[in-house]
Design a protein that fits this description.
Length: 137
């Protein structure tokens, strides 16, 4: 979760619930969430990590199983960037998805990360991302 605060740029009351959710999902026997990490080379802790999940959705022509991957978090501690750690974590996650027969993987890229994702085969989608906050207000 420390690297998630690096990615988001802040911490707060979401941190403890996030830790609990991640622990529960990573220990779920259905194996629908995976995390791949690179340890800090100079001491304890993580230098980089990626977290991805498999979601079950309605199937479609490009997604015949309805199982879709989603990359939730890619983060590298600033002092360890530009060493290929995020790429290694992403490659492991992509392999995990492929091993499970996932044919579509989505993510939301930052401008800084877009080049890495494109080099791994990700493409921009034609449809814009949209979000509704607080439905019912």
């Amino acid at each position: 979760m420390r690297l998630r605060t690096v990615m988001i740029g802040s911490s707060g009351p979401w941190l403890e619930p996030g830790r609990e959710i991640l622990e529960r999902q990573l220990t779920d026997p259905r194996d629908l969430v995976a995390a791949f990490v690179v340890d800090r080379p100079d001491g304890p802790g993580l230098a980089s990590c990626v977290v991805g999940a498999i979601d079950e959705r309605l199937p479609g022509p490009r997604d015949p199983t309805g199982l879709r991957g989603y990359v939730y978090n890619v983060a590298t501690d600033p002092q360890y960037r530009r060493r290929g750690y995020s790429r290694a974590c992403m490659a492991a996650l992509i392999h995990w998805y492929a091993h499970r027969g996932i044919t579509v993987v989505d993510l939301r890229a930052t401008p800084d990360g877009e080049g890495v994702y494109a080099s791994l085969g990700f493409e921009r989608t034609k449809d814009p991302a949209m979000r509704l906050l607080n439905p019912g207000r």
